[in-house]
Design brief:
By secondary structure, the chain is an all-alpha fold. It has ten helices and no strands. The two termini are 19 Å apart. This is PRA1 family protein.
Amino acid sequence: MAFSTNPLSLSVPDPAFETWLRDSGYLEVLDQRTSELHRISHSVPSTTSTNSVVPTYSTTTTVTGVFVSLLSRILTLLSLFTLNPFAKLTTDDFSGQTPSWTTLFVGSCHSYCFPSSSSQARLRVHENVKRYARNYATLFVIFFACTLYKMPIALVGLLSSLALWDIFKFFSERWGLDQYPVVRQCLIRGAQCVTAVILICSNVQMALFWALGVSYAVMVLHAAFRKLTPVKQDFRGR
């Protein structure tokens, strides 16, 4: 479902029509409509400058238009890192089936375009993060595993901390520490301190920081440039 123009323009103003599309769940229509209006608004000045009689005015208008367009895109990119991409994310978004990596998550070359404004970028980010939450979580796990592969000391530290807690659980059940809650709490606090020392000395926090940074940047950029597709099409793709 797609509208090139407002079919109710004779009775419904554009802001009310966009509100209806947003409330009805047709976010992909609103996304496509915003891109088309931006393309039309930028094609009109170029046509006017082409038919201009004085070439100097045409050159000045073209340079000004390019500068304004470049500045607008830079501000749109900067606005991506000021919004909260998890504002509309819920736990139910992780309970569904993972969208297809090829047809839905990656898509084709026509599935991407630069957001025309910060509001369109915010709309795409919030909706795509909800739709592809499981894909982004998988990417974080992959990035974290690759970071640990590049940092073997951090990998050893992480495995050592996990082994420490397995040993603690084994001896806790063998010695029946549940009957001695005070002793058990003291041993747990000591194991936590030892785990913190191991993780800090092995730079596991740096591996986690790099994995979070890279995965966050990939998530925000992909969600902002990825066009919204109809929800029914997503279900058919699954």
